[in-house]
Amino acid sequence: MADLPRLPNNSQRIAVIGRTGSGKTQAAVWQLSRRNFLSMPWVVFNFKGDELIDSIPFADHVEVGHIPKRAGIYIVHPLPGQLAEMQSYLWALWGRENVGLFCDEGYMMGDDEAFLACLTQGRSRRIPMIVLTQRPAWISRFVFTESQFYQVFSLTDRRDWKTVSQFIPDDGRMETTVLPEFHSWYYDVGKNKLFVLAPVPSEDEILGSIRKRFEDYAAANRKRVKKI
Question: How many whole angstroms separate alpha carbon 171 and alpha carbon 56?
Answer without folding.
Answer: 38
